[in-house]
Specification:
Keywords: Signal
Strand order of the largest sheet: 1-3-4-2
Pfam families: CAP (PF00188)
CATH topology of one domain: Pathogenesis-related Protein p14a
Oligomer: single chain
Radius of gyration: 19 Å
Number of helices: 7
Protein name: Cysteine-rich secretory protein family protein
Distance between the termini: 50 Å
Shape: globular
CATH superfamily of one domain: CAP
Number of strands: 4
C-alpha cells in the first residue's frame, strides 16, 4: 500500500474519525488537524444525538454555490452555510409548498426573522429570497439578480446563509449575526 492507512475497525472510533473529518471540512480544516482531534483507540466517545449538516441535499449545495459565484463575481465574500438558517429555509419551503403560493409570511403569520429565531439563532439582520418554477439553482439566482430587492439580499453584508428546495420552490435565508 502507498502510505494510506485504513479506517479504524472499531465502529465508535470510525464514527469519531468521520465526524471530526466532516466537522473540519465545514470549518476549512485539514485531515491532519481532524486526526489530532480523534479520541485514543478504545476510548468512549460521546457524540451528540444529531449533528445538523450545513448543507444536506445536492440542490442546497447547488444554490449555495450559485449564490457564492454571483457574490464572488462582484467582489463580495462567500457566505457560509448555517444549519439553523438552513432549517428555517427548509421549514418555510415546506410551508410554502403546502400553501401553493410564494409569501414571505408563513402560514402561521411568521416573518423570516421569527423563523430564524425559532431555530435558536441570534441575528442582527436577516433577509429571504424566494423563487418558484426555476429548474436549477443558477436560474433561481439569475431571477433574483434582476430584482433590486433580491439582488440587494444576494450582495448584502450577510455572512451566513441557509438554502432549501422543496418541489419547485427555492428559499435562501441570509443572516448577519450580532
Amino acid at each position: 500500500m502507498s502510505g494510506v492507512r485504513p479506517l479504524p475497525q472499531r465502529p465508535r472510533a470510525r464514527l469519531a474519525l468521520l465526524t471530526c473529518l466532516a466537522l473540519m471540512a465545514c470549518q476549512g480544516g485539514t485531515a491532519r488537524q481532524a486526526a489530532q482531534l480523534t479520541a485514543p483507540a478504545g476510548a468512549a466517545v460521546a457524540l451528540p444525538a444529531s449533528l445538523p449538516a450545513p448543507v444536506v441535499t445536492r440542490e442546497q449545495g447547488d444554490l449555495l454555490t450559485a449564490i457564492n459565484a454571483f457574490r464572488s463575481a462582484r467582489g463580495r465574500a462567500p457566505l457560509e452555510p448555517d444549519p439553523q438558517a438552513r432549517l428555517a429555509a427548509e421549514r418555510h419551503a415546506r410551508d410554502l409548498r403546502g400553501l401553493g403560493e410564494l409569501s414571505h409570511v408563513g402560514s402561521d403569520g411568521s416573518s423570516v426573522g421569527e423563523r430564524v429565531s425559532r431555530e435558536g439563532m441570534a441575528w442582527c439582520r436577516v433577509a429571504e429570497n424566494l423563487a418558484r418554477g426555476q429548474s436549477s439553482a443558477e436560474m433561481a439566482v439569475t431571477g433574483w439578480s434582476v430584482s433590486p430587492g433580491h439582488r440587494r439580499n444576494l450582495l448584502g453584508d450577510y455572512t451566513l446563509v441557509g438554502t432549501a428546495r422543496n418541489g419547485e420552490i427555492w428559499v435562501a435565508v441570509f443572516v448577519k449575526p450580532c
